[in-house]
Amino acid sequence: MSTTPTLLVLFIGLIVGCCLGIYEEEVGLRDWSIRNIGQLESVFDYDQDLLVQSKLLVYNQNTNNYTNSFSLALLDKNTGITKWRQLIPVQEDTFEQILINDLDKDYFITISNGNIIRYWSRVNGELIWNQVIVSTNQCYQASFVNIDTLRVLCLDSVVFLSIKRGTILSSANIDSEKNYQSIPNTFYLYYRDTDNNVQFLPINYQNSKVDTSKSKHSVSLDLAAGDQVTGHLALEGAIVYTSSANNIHVLDIQEEKNGNALNVEKQTIALFSLIKEQGISIVGVDSVYPDNRFTVVLSNKSKLLLEYTNRRLSVITMIEQHYVMVRPSLSGQQQQLFIGSNKSDGKIELALATESAKNPQPLPMGINTTVNGDIESIFSTDKQGYCLVVTNDWAIHMIQYSSRADEPPILLWTREESLSSVLASEIIDFPLPELAKLEEFEYEFNSTQGFIQHFTRRITTQIQDLVSLFMGSSTDANKDVIINQDNGNKQRTPKMILLTTLAGKVFGLSSDKGTIVWSRYYSDFDRSRAESKIFITKKTLYYPPEAAIVISTTSKSSSTKSVVSFINPLNGKESSNKIINHNILHASILPIVDDHHHQLLMIAVDYPPNQPSPMVQVYPWNEYIRHHSFASMKNIVNYYLVNHTAATVQGYRIDSMANGLKGQLKSDPTWKISFGANHQILAVGSSNAHEIIQSPAVILGNRNLLPKYVNRNVISIASLDPKLSLLTITLVDAVSGITIKSFTHAHSAAKVSIVHTENSVVYAHYDLTSHKQHISVIDMFEKTVEWTQDTYSSLSTSKQDIAANLIIKHKTFDFVQGLIKTMRLAITTKGITSKNVLVGTVSGQILPIDKKWINARRPTPEEALPTDQEEGLIPYGPRLAFPPFFYITFNTTIPALRSIETQGTDLESTSIVLAYGVDVFCTLIAPSLPYDILSDSFNHIALIITSIVLLILTFISKNWKDSLALKKKWK
Amino acid sequence: MKDTGLYCLVLVLCICIVNGQSTTATASKSTAASKVNKLEGKLAGVNDIKYHLTKVNLIDNTNYNEYSVIPDKAGSFAFYNISSGFYTMEIECFQYIFYQYKVDVLNNKIKNQIKVRPAENETIIMPQPLVLKPMSRGLYFQQHVPFNIFSLFQNPMVISIGFTSVMIYLLPKMSSFVNEAAQEEGMVKPKQGPELLQKVPDWGQALITN
Question: A160: which of A205, A298, A523, A956 fits an S-S bond (Cβ 3.0–4.6 Å)?
């Protein structure tokens, strides 16, 4: 038997790679994330890296506003990839300074929140120490005194800290009204008193104590009567004051060799002795640049770049008002003085301010005012010509600049930082493969055309599929869509993710790797209102698809203005737009399709203003809609509005046509629920329009059917009485206004998240007495049901019918894995896969919970029947605890998690999950395991080897059997 | 003289009031710093924890407002000036799982009025400064299992090959029984059925010659 050793080797080979779970190294195969840093505020250059400080706008659900937050990051200079990122705690809403330790460049200091001093490692972002100066919150400037000591200047004190340990060595009080400033490389502080005398105050730290013994100094600016100081700044060895009489006063400061005294010499230079232009005046000073250069702002909004060297003030150049000047470097780091401007043709030009001819160079293709908005700021990082250009869309562009005309600027990389503030999202299919399209058509057959048309289309599609097979390309695939699909792509048919952002930029991202396929910038987006929604008005199935972007825009008049922009979601090109000059109250998609497969977009506006009957506008509006679809809208289309101020919810119904030409309809109020002026409406939950419900009933253990109460018109309103901390969940039929049921929870916090699925309402709430996060579920069933009736009508149901016919179950569970910030239902394409609720925690992790765990019919162990076990009901236990590997975010978090979006994929078992906060995260999940696809870890080689071995064994066994039979016969 | 005395008295009083006010202001300023409450702690118990990738979050239970701190390289952290209220303290760490804690700030001006209790056992009040140890290593991924020869026999593919191999040995044996039975049947059958016209020679009695 020579085959025995071979078989043994094969056995061992088979076991290699056989696994069922996900290993750490598999992270990134089915998920991706975009780590954002926010709006760039300052940059420090290292040889291969950039240390950056940025501002983030974090959404606060309690105030419905954005708060300032800050981040520090180290970027790879050549690729822009984040090496590390630290988010400054969100409660610190000011950032005063970042200061590089010149003596050891691997460390730096930050001041935030006015009193928190931190010492960081540049290498890995490690916090070495932090010190909170509790006596004040108005510290604004830090400087290194020596290798061991740091001086922090606060409004009312000067604090000295140990650089090694961060401990406070000593402090001295100063007059908070004098607004002291420090002079670089000296221990002197200065301020200007009311008599226009500049006072110098020596504060040093020597021999473990604050030393103020050195002589004070005072210099008068000698301003003429009526002349006023307009600005001041400190250079190295000099202080510059500007005055309204167009004079520049330079105080030249020299410390005596023994350091005990200060010599100050004053020069007064008239503006017009420096420039020839007349009729302009000095407004103030602007920024200090390396080599004692600084800018003075003039009345014509241009800037004068000056240099003070060898006790002489000289003009370098005049910078016209349309130029944006480079930001001053940190810690006096060398930089090139770039200026940039927007041209009328949309191009953005870059030049060096110091060059006499200025020789502007247009930035590379792809960076222009149409795509990115105007230039906002420029950061020069070194003397080698590298600079960062930040545009109005918060994008950061790394440019390699050459002043030579024959060497145009090179774009090295771009970071789209507006993705740090996503407002709304939607997911749409890419153009489907022909066979998938056929399947979709099959699915929609009953509701669309007749048999002949359907048959014709089927044959046509199959022919097209055959043609594309031979031609090697799809016949109607969108040629504009370019997706970089590398070998690592694990999604069979990726989707397009649409995101709108606070910067006014809309993105189309490929769901497979997060690649930005297209972007579109709305320059007039109103960031203060920050209202944005996305609706898919035409599916990809009916190419070309269409999406409606509803955004608030700025208006010169006080009235609110919005724009509905209809775009192709596959390439971002706008096909049309509509301007709405009224406040939008409600926007949604109607399940009504026109003759070109457009779903109608309904927008309720506050017109006439503050009237009880809002106007409803419908898009698109044409003759077909007017004649064929209006009848299906009238008295059937209902919507509701939530008034958070008055704590009311009011239902409306489209009643009649107000303007037949413009598609304006009149809606009338039908019902109203008032929760009382002392109540707050915390949240309103409704069913997910993308959810498909497959099963209308539950099969019980005794083989009976329990019909589900599937009413998509049910909404749940969470209201709170703040005085009593009494939470009420009210289930209302949003069409008829009938209150189905209400539940109350005492001692509840003011934070509720709601998810609807099939016949269930799942909501998360916090109990202030027990200090526990709860998840409650309401499951609704019907006692009897008319099985022949395939649609549910809220209009034909009375309150008595509901009360008599409904079985409502309720259960509450303790969720022990953190506080819940948001919840979402995991959607699958056909709704066959078991339902999962995605729970987003405050810490930014996402946990999918199978609905079977949050089932109101879970019996208590004492009440459990054999039929319950047969049905698969899990006995009730109050705790919901899951192992860490259940988190779909693994060991990462999404800071300031705001929302979760899901949609089904071409595989029923798999859902795509998109979550966003400061970062954007996307992954594929299989709530009931990937039953319709082999897992990534499936050992294909082992399967092949097994098949071959079995084949060989079959032959062996056949031959062996024959030989045995022959032997037998020879006996 | 009487008026002068009165003026002097008023002057002295004024000086006293001014001095008193300034003293009070100084005192209130100095006590303001001391009255800021503070919750200090340290993450301990493990050596390989990366503190710069860890955050300690204090979440207000009433409105979910979040306050966070980044521990320093020694794992120490501190919250200052916490408003009165009830909080949940979570440690966000990608390596380890920590317990949750309930933090009650009863009066934000007095330090010892901050009470910290483990969420799992709220009867225990933890001493301060806190020393927080991880509950377990965070098993966010499947762990590689070292090779075990017995695991071979759990692999369905190996089982199928093994079963087939066994059957290779067994099936011929079984078929041989069937053949023997059939042979026996065959031996009996000729006796019962009609005789063949041409009989097969009996090999046992046949003589083989060259």
Answer: A205
Helix, strand, coil fractions of chain B, as percent rounded to 5: 40, 25, 40
Pair (B45, B132) in one structural domain:
yes
Q: What is the dihedral of CA A657, A663, A666, A670, to 10 degrees?
A: 110
DSSP-assigned letter for residue A803 = H
Number of domains comprising chain B? 2
B67 pairs with which residues across the strands? B58
Answer whether A96's CB lies under 8 Å from A88's CB: no
pLDDT in tens, A485-540: 344 444 556 889 999 999 999 999 999 889 999 999 999 999 988 999 999 999 88
Q: Taking CB atoms and an 8 Å cutoff, what residues of chain B touch A961?
A: 171-172, 175
Higher model confidence: residue A735 or residue A632?
A: A735
Closest C-alpha among A519, A517, A516, A515 to residue A505? A519
Query: Which of A452, A499, A334 is CA-nearest to residue A919?
Result: A499
Please answer whether residues A227 and A245 qualify as being in contact, where contact means their C-beta atoms are separated by less than 8 angstroms.
yes
Mean pLDDT of A147-166: 91
Same domain, yes or no, for B118 and B44?
yes
- Distances in Å between the Cα of A386 and the Cα atoms of A43, A348, A381, A410, A617 are 12, 16, 6, 10, 51
CB contact under 8 A, B164 and A950: yes
Residue whose token pair is 């998109």: A914
Q: Cβ neighbours of residue A108 under 8 Å, at least 6 residues apart?
A: A44, A51, A98, A99, A100, A101, A119, A120, A122
Residue in chain B lying closest to A941 (CA):
B157
How far is Cα A807 from Cα A65, in angstroms, rounded to an integer?
Answer: 41
What's the rounded mean pLDDT across residues B134-156?
Answer: 78
The closest alpha carbon to B37, from B85, B84, B103, B82, belongs to: B82
pLDDT digits (tens, 9 = 90+) for A4-18: 555 555 444 444 443
State whether B64 and A21 contact (CB < 8 Å). no
- Whole-number pLDDT of residue A470: 65
Per CB-CB distance under 8 Å, the chain B contacts of A12 are 152
For strand A495-501 and strand A422-429, is the pairing parallel, antiparallel, or unpaired?
antiparallel
Q: Which of A61, A125, A749 lies closest to B52 in CB terms?
A: A125
Q: Which of A34-43, A664-673, A835-844, B20-29 has the lowest mean pLDDT?
A: B20-29
Query: Are B41 and B97 in the same domain?
Result: yes
Residues B37 and B130 occupy one common structural domain: yes
Judging contacts by C-beta atoms under 8 Å, the chain A residues touching residue B166 are: none
In a shared domain, residues B39 and B122: yes
Minimum-distance CB partner of A23 among B138, B141, B157? B141
The CA distance from A152 to A171, in Å, is: 9
User: For every residue of B190-208, which 3-state class applies, written as one string?
Assistant: HHHCCCCCCCCCCCCCCCC
Closest by CA to A949, choosing from A17, A2, A3, A1, is A3
User: What whole-number distance in Å separates Cα of residue A893 and Cα of residue A881?
Assistant: 19
Q: What are phi and psi of A788, to 5 degrees?
A: -75, -15
Between A564 and A632, name the one with better pLDDT.
A564
* Residues B132 and B180 reside in one and the same domain: no
Q: In A89-135, which ranges are E strands?
A: 95-100, 107-112, 116-121, 127-132
- Both tokens assigned to B117: 């209790």
Which residues form the domain of A776?
Answer: 710-930
Final residue in a domain of this structure, among A321, A347, A369: A321
Task: Work out the minimum CA distance from B11 to partner chain A, whole angstroms.
Answer: 27
CA A422 to chain centre: 4
List the domain range (segments joined by +) for residue B62. 33-137
Q: Where are the beta strands (DSSP E) in A404-515?
A: 410-416, 422-429, 495-501, 505-510
| ipTM of model | 0.84
Chain B contact set for A84 (CB, 8 A): 52
